[in-house]
């Protein structure tokens, strides 16, 4: 019988050495999981500590080794760190955590969509991605935490106010998504000037008072930057993974790097980068044109070892439908851009599952 790709990968990883321990990474038990699917290999490596320099060499060696296997088109190395306390018997006996508690609600995966600056398409991506998850059959929630400029209500065409019995606030269901936004509570004419404590209070309400119920995934649209809201949220809920949205221009890219650093410090796994408006897709000919010249996103992602998970075109229909309150992925699921969102949702779900697996191993 032919050797499976997983076995071949494991066998070859047995040749990758840890200089520190003078042994290969398989016998050291660092290879926690390998999955192979249509030429893509996802591999989880566990490190003893956060020493970037030592880890980087092993990651690169593993990546290069796996890339050499005939038929392999993509290699994705996910890293995790061994925590001392986890080895105690108590911790070992703890049941595997399957859901995140958001207030009294149970949600399996929480995905935060972040960006260094506004206007890069973060909310557009959060909404369309949520629709894509729903179309793949996952019960999906969408939380608009961009309290400074909530744009989700307009993007999904919500004008009404949520119902409340004074204790719990009900979500507004649109396109099969359970949604909540601070934009449902305040009106456009009277923007609130949010201060630190108010931000905490608003975030608490959206997490604890909202009846989200049980769900497979919650997509959170974070405000741009690295301010109070992101930190409050990260302290409050255990975010399973984050996505960073950028555009090909340099200025946005620098902010992305800042964003990545913040997430690293707070231990939120970064699942990858989405480059939005990478090119213009001519609606008549379907031809692609680069709007901003050659992108620098790839350089940054390689330098920090984050994957660019998708390149989205500048598409007039996407913008038009967002402005009208109809997410394109919902309205025209077989549109080229909708297909990108559906593929992205599949990749992300896979990554979220791997991250959870790495945490419970
Ligand atoms: P952010 O949440 O980062 O501030 P938005 O998602 O609100 O950004 O997008 C800003 C504007 O750009 C919106 O008008 C939106 O419709 C438009 N937009 C976003 N992504 C695209 C795209 N790929 N093609 C065309 N227009 C886009």
Structure, explained:
It is a single chain. The protein is of the alpha/beta class and 361 residues long. The chain has two domains: 2-83, GMP Synthetase, Chain A, domain 3 (2-Layer Sandwich); 95-360, Rossmann fold, CATH 3.40.50. Helices cover 37% and strands 26% of the residues. It contains twelve helices and 17 strands. It has helices at residues 5-13, 52-67, 89-93, 122-135, 152-155, 196-209, 228-236, 250-265, 297-304, 316-324, 328-331, 336-360, and strands at residues 17-18, 23-24, 31-37, 40-47, 74-81, 100-102, 105-115, 140-144, 169-170, 172-174, 177-181, 210-211, 214-221, 241-246, 270-281, 288-290, 308-314. The strands form four sheets. Strands 6, 7, 8, 10, 11, 13, 14, 15, 16 and 17 form a ten-stranded mixed β-sheet that branches. A hairpin with a 2-residue loop joins strand 10 and strand 11. Helix 4 crosses helix 12 and helix 6 runs parallel beside helix 7. The model is unreliable at 84-97 (pLDDT under 50). The site of adenosine-5'-diphosphate has 17 residues, from helix 4, strand 15, strand 17 and helix 10.
Give the tags.
361 residues; alpha/beta; GMP Synthetase, Chain A, domain 3; Rossmann fold; 2 domains; 10-stranded mixed beta sheet; 12 helices; 17 strands; binds adenosine-5'-diphosphate
What integer value in Å does the Rg equal? 21 Å
CATH architecture of the largest domain: 3-Layer(aba) Sandwich
DSSP, total strands: 17
Cα separation of the termini: 30 Å
Under CATH at level 1, the class of the largest domain stands as Alpha Beta
Describe the global form. Answer: globular
Major sheet characteristics:
10 strands, mixed
Helical percent range? 25-40%
As residue ranges, the low-confidence spans are 84-97
**Can you identify the CATH superfamily of the largest domain?**
P-loop containing nucleotide triphosphate hydrolases
CATH topology name of the largest domain, in short, is Rossmann fold
Class from secondary-structure proportions: alpha/beta
What share of the residues does DSSP label as strand, in percent? Answer: 25-35%
